[in-house]
């Protein structure tokens, strides 16, 4: 009887001080990146209203899809009266980078419950991935509490900013022309630059960036995909050389 009570008490106990500390750290770490995407969220919300979605539909898009770049791409295609096939193919290509993110986390979560894995998968964003990887490098361990906490904080701020955009889109004309999309580039720059710690990553970033700029002039529809593969190839080849030199 005593053993049973002990087990029940452990399972129903509140978060331990260490968990609370991890949640606090995750919140502090993700907050700058989350706040940087506020203009992006505002743009998503206002653009959704401008293309004809109702306020409820616009908010549900952020609540259920929760993918900023994919949302903007889908809304842009909707505004241009594009086909459903174009919308799905574009969002698939844009979101395909999450396959790489999930491959990094796979070994750390494959023995976890299905519910936990689904939760981490839903909250997995560029920003959550970046801060979680930084936490892993620093502490040499993967923390589901940290990953989910950072994801939840980002999710809340993203949806609040989307709601702000929905309200603003109904009262401020042409809000999409205010240059809010710069937040997209600024966010990814903030994520990428701290990760440039080796020659292979530097070559990968430079080659993919230059390729994207040049290819967008000649083949706009495929520039991002081709530039991604060029960056990966350059990173792989230069990493080979680094290993050889050692």
Task: Provide a short characterization of the protein structure.
The chain has 246 residues and is mainly alpha-helical. It contains 13 helices and no strands. The chain is 80% helix and 0% strand.
Overview of this protein structure:
Helix 3 (38-50) packs across helix 4 (55-65) and helix 8 packs across helix 10. This protein has 246 residues and is mostly helical. It has 13 helices and no strands. Residues 1-15 and 241-246 have low confidence and may be disordered. It has two domains: 18-195, no CATH class; 196-246.
Low-confidence blocks of residues: 1-15, 241-246
Average pLDDT number: 81
Give a count of the beta strands, DSSP E runs of length 2 or more: 0
Major β-sheet, in short? none
The number of helical runs is 13
In whole angstroms, the N-to-C terminal distance is 61 Å
User: From the helix content, strand content and strand pairing, which structural class follows?
Assistant: mainly alpha
Radius of gyration: 21 Å
How many discrete structural domains? 2
Q: Report the portion of residues in β strands.
A: under 5%
Order of helices and strands: HHHHHHHHHHHHH
**Dominant shape:** globular
Percent of residues in helices comes to over 70%
Topology (elements, then pairings):
Layout lengths: L1 H11 L4 H20 L1 H13 L4 H11 L2 H12 L4 H12 L1 H13 L4 H10 L2 H14 L4 H28 L10 H11 L6 H20 L4 H23 L1
Comma- or semicolon-separated keywords:
246 residues; mainly alpha; disordered N terminus
């Amino acid at each position: 009887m005593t053993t049973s009570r002990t087990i029940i008490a452990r399972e129903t106990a509140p978060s331990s001080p260490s968990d609370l500390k991890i949640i606090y750290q995750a919140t502090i770490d993700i907050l700058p990146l989350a706040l940087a995407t506020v203009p992006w969220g505002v743009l998503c919300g206002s653009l959704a209203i401008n293309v004809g979605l109702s306020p409820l539909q616009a908010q549900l898009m952020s609540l259920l899809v929760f993918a900023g770049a994919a949302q903007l791409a889908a809304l842009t295609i909707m505004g241009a009266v594009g086909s459903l096939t174009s919308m799905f193919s574009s969002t698939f290509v844009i979101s395909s980078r999450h396959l790489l993110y999930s491959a990094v986390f796979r070994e750390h979560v494959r023995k976890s419950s299905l519910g936990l894995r689904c939760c981490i998968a839903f909250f997995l964003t560029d920003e959550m991935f970046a801060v979680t990887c930084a936490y892993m490098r620093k502490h040499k361990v993967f923390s589901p509490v940290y990953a989910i906490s950072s994801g939840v904080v980002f999710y809340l701020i993203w949806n609040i900013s989307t709601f702000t955009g929905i309200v603003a889109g109904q009262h401020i004309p042409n809000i999409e022309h205010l240059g809010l999309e710069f937040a997209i580039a600024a966010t990814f720059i903030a994520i990428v630059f701290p990760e440039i710690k080796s020659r292979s990553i530097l070559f990968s970033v430079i080659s993919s960036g230059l390729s994207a700029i040049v290819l967008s002039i000649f083949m706009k529809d495929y520039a991002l995909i081709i530039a991604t593969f060029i960056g990966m190839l350059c990173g792989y080849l230069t990493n080979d050389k680094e290993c050889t030199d050692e």
